[in-house]
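hey so i finally got around to running the thing on that chain from the lab meeting. sorry it took forever, my laptop kept dying and i had to restart like 3 times. anyway pasting the input first so we r on the same page abt which one it is
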Amino acid sequence: MTWNPFTGKDKKAQGQESDTGETRDRTEGKGRPTPKRKVAEAQTLRPLVPKDRKASRKAAKARIRAREDAQYEAMKTGDVVHMPKAERLPWRVYIRDYVDARFNLLEWSFPAIMVLIVGMFISLFTSSVTSPATATTINLIVTIAIYVYIIIGILDTWLMWRRLKTKLIGKFGERSVARGSRSASYAWQRAMMVRRWRVPKPTSPKRGNWPK
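ok and heres what got predicted. didnt touch it at all, straight out
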């Protein structure tokens, strides 16, 4: 033990006080002592495989289902901001507005098929009441009318797509009509659907409001 005549304390005591002061400073500065490396790593590590896999899968499915329900509700209400990413593409919005603005003959293809089915039932009923020739004539007339309607409707939709394709290229470039964009099938499918049944919902309640 060495005696310091100026402070009255030995060097060993000074060293102990210095160590105590540094520890106190570190503790007071952070509010807690610095954890060891193993403790810090254990706190940050997360298991790659959850303990309860069944509950984890159930929670993931619930999140996906909630997101899909929210997106579908946005499509039903016409909320473009919350629709799926594919439906928010600018050229798809333009396609929807363009198709919804015109009168598409193929829009009534499904009702026309229902008329054909009803006509067949009528012909079967008529054949039991009147002559089979009359029933055959009615069935033939209805069938020819439906086929003529479908052919004209396909021609109308093809002409619509040609005009729409030119507008898409001029406004959004070639990428809007590329094969991967599926713009053609998207426009045809929407044109074949009855307007009030379309999803996403038309932005305008009436026809004739063409996109700019």
